[in-house]
Amino acid sequence: MGRGCLAGPVVAGAVILHPARHIPGLADSKVLRAAARESLAEEIRAKAVAWSLAVLDPAEIDRLNIHRASLTAMRQAAMSLVPLPGFVFVDGFPLPGLPVAQRSVIHGDAKVAAIAAASIVAKVARDAMMLDLHHADPRYGFERHKGYATAEHLAAVARYGYSPAHRRTFRPPTLFDLSDTIAD
User: What is the dihedral of CA 117, 118, 124, 130, to 10 degrees?
Assistant: First the structure.
């Protein structure tokens, strides 16, 4: 999803799993190795009844704030499913304005197979987007840290300022003094 990142979009996934098409190895996307996530994402997309993604860019994240942007992306992903499900499991917080019955599950990506599948599909898609951002501007090392606040990323921001891919409203205290530094 990319909630805690300094750069890049927030990406939410929604998946309707087919009860007769078991996908072994579904787990929280954060605990899987990249190769396993990519393989599982391909299998999920092939075996699911439906899947969808919603992407909100850094400007939209800054406009809404990361919490509301995440909820918006999750609602958009769920509402884009065809067929529309009659019930939705949601990771973490309930989704305001979702016209479908729902149940929020704290740490749902580790507890509910459909939430795990959605997190995998979303993370693989977001990682690919971050790789594209790296190719467009390799100064920040997005291919390695995917926009998270690693020492390498913080050093690049200190050196080059923010790029158009950076979120302006979310930054660690060490970057508060760089808030007026923008790189184009």
Answer: -160
